[in-house]
């Protein structure tokens, strides 16, 4: 009898993260030694990792599951969370940000991301998106005396409301067509169904719009540059990788599970979206001099590349997407780690010209920046090259040759802004001393990112095989 009941153990990691987050928010007013929150965060992440591994395979009925697919993304989210915690202390102290509130809101956002990856019901997908988004709205506005921070938060909030409305409409229409919101049951009822082509196409377009906002795909990207620029740099680092990976996790599960019977239709929606996103992101990045806006458009272009994994419509395509998101998290957080290293006061380190002559004053920081930027540009032997190569490979094997050629060309164009920063670091003389905001925690975070970028660039097989094994177990 008891074995047939839903298992609450599947939510133990989320419950722990919520408990730690709540405790940090409540303690912020009374704890004077702010580094306590860093230790609490790292301890909570370690315990959450233990619970994630020990509860793998459990599920709560047919609506929430710690299956191998969600396990992969849970590990990615915990890695992102740990790296952001390590990279943040020096910057948050310089900016006067309350540690407890800051780390607490990041933990709440991570819980929403985990729900997104584990949800097998559309209502839980909506719940996960809202929890994640509401937390990030607050984080973006943390520099509230700065009008850029308020502007970015307001734009993100307003467009996030539109995305939520589209998602609710999509869920309502799906329920009207299938009388269920469970992904597995939706797939069963759509298989062999007649007369639903036009209605389904409309529903899938609504889902694409809703999730397109979250991955900042063009033309749903309008919030990203201003939110990235206005947010605290450590928040920008977090929101550029974590929420994007969570949205792709939901996108992959929904389209490859619930709507897989209509794959021929949704591919026709995603192809122009991917093309527009890759081209627009790469071209707009060329003219940016603010490094946070540059990375925003770079993130947009990389989202277009990541869509290739979904468009391929195969298990290998989804595995390539998952591996790319893991690698993207490492290299993007590495770049932001260097930005945080240079950011000693408000606005410092945001212009690409702030890195002029960095190789002369701090050669080790310039070398790390070079590695991370080359990885973002997809230059071998870094992990970024491996991630893009596998995405191109699965799309090519699925027959999307023209799309792969376009992706390769936009990747070449998109590498120019990174090369420009490298030239400024190595070919120009510094205009003055470049003080660094270095801490042992930040150095540890950069070391982990560097190790991942180099190891998976030279030896990607374990990551690819693990991602593939997680996808093959997807129901």
UniProtKB/TrEMBL annotation:
Membrane topology category: Multi-pass membrane protein
Annotated keywords: Cell membrane, Membrane, NAD, Quinone, Translocase, Transmembrane, Transmembrane helix, Transport, Ubiquinone
Principal cellular location given in the protein's record: membrane
GO biological process, alphabetically ordered: ATP synthesis coupled electron transport
Record EC number: 7.1.1.-
GO MF: NADH dehydrogenase (quinone) (non-electrogenic) activity; NADH dehydrogenase (ubiquinone) activity; quinone binding
Bilayer-spanning residue ranges: 6-27, 36-57, 69-87, 99-117, 123-144, 156-178, 198-224, 245-263, 269-287, 294-312, 318-343, 364-386, 398-419, 440-459
Enzyme class: translocase
Superkingdom of this protein's organism: Bacteria
GO cellular component terms listed in the entry, alphabetical order: endomembrane system; plasma membrane
Keyword Transmembrane helix annotated: yes
Residue ranges of domain NADH:quinone oxidoreductase/Mrp antiporter transmembrane in the record: 119-411
Catalysed reaction, written as an equation: a quinone + NADH + 5 H(+)(in) = a quinol + NAD(+) + 4 H(+)(out)
Family: Belongs to the complex I subunit 2 family.
Role according to the record: NDH-1 shuttles electrons from NADH, via FMN and iron-sulfur (Fe-S) centers, to quinones in the respiratory chain. The immediate electron acceptor for the enzyme in this species is believed to be ubiquinone. Couples the redox reaction to proton translocation (for every two electrons transferred, four hydrogen ions are translocated across the cytoplasmic membrane), and thus conserves the redox energy in a proton gradient.
PANTHER family: NADH DEHYDROGENASE
Complex formation: NDH-1 is composed of 14 different subunits. Subunits NuoA, H, J, K, L, M, N constitute the membrane sector of the complex.
Name of protein: NADH-quinone oxidoreductase subunit N
Gene: nuoN
């Amino acid at each position: 009898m008891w074995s047939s009941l839903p298992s609450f153990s599947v939510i133990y990691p989320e419950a722990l993260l919520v408990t730690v987050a709540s405790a940090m928010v409540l303690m912020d007013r009374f704890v004077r030694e702010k580094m306590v929150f860093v230790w609490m965060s790292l301890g909570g992440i370690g315990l959450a990792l233990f619970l994630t591994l020990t509860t793998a395979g459990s599920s709560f009925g047919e609506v929430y599951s710690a299956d191998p697919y969600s396990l992969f993304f849970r590990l990615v989210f915990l890695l992102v969370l740990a790296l952001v915690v390590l990279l943040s202390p020096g910057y948050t102290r310089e900016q006067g940000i309350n540690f407890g509130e800051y780390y607490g809101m990041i933990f709440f956002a991570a819980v929403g991301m985990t729900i997104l990856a584990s949800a097998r019901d559309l209502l839980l997908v909506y719940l996960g998106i809202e929890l994640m988004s509401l937390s990030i709205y607050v984080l973006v506005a943390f520099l509230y005396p700065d009008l850029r921070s308020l502007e970015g938060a307001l734009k993100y909030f307003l467009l996030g409301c539109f995305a939520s409305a589209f998602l609710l409409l999509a869920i309502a229409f799906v329920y009207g067509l299938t009388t269920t919101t469970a992904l597995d049951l939706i797939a069963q009822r759509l298989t062999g169904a007649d007369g639903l082509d036009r209605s389904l196409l409309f529903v899938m377009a609504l889902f694409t719009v809703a999730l397109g906002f979250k991955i900042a795909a063009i033309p749903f990207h309008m919030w990203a540059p201003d939110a990235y620029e206005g947010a605290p740099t450590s928040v920008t680092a977090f929101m550029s990788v974590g929420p994007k990976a969570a949205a792709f996790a939901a996108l992959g599960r929904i389209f490859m599970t619930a709507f897989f019977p209509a794959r021929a239709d949704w591919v026709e929606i995603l192809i122009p979206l991917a093309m527009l996103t890759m081209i627009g992101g790469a071209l707009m990045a060329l003219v940016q001099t603010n490094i946070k806006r540059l990375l925003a458009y770079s993130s947009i272009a990389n989202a277009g590349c990541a869509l290739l994994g979904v468009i391929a419509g195969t298990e290998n395509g989804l595995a390539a997407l998952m591996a790319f998101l893991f690698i993207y998290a490492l290299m993007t957080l590495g770049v932001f780690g260097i930005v945080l290293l240079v950011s000693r006061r408000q606005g410092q380190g945001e212009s690409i010209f702030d890195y002029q002559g960095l190789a002369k004053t701090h050669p080790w920081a310039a070398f790390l920046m070079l590695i991370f930027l080359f990885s973002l540009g997809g230059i071998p032997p870094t992990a970024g090259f491996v991630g893009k190569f596998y995405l191109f490979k699965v799309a090519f094997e699925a027959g999307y040759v023209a799309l792969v050629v376009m992706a390769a060309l936009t990747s070449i164009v998109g590498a120019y802004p990174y090369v420009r920063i490298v030239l400024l670091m190595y070919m120009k003389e510094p205009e003055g001393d470049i003080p660094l905001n270095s801490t042992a925690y930040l150095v540890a975070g950069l070391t982990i990112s560097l190790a991942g970028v180099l190891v998976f660039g030279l030896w990607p097989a374990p990551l690819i095989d693990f991602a593939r094994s997680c996808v093959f177990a997807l129901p």
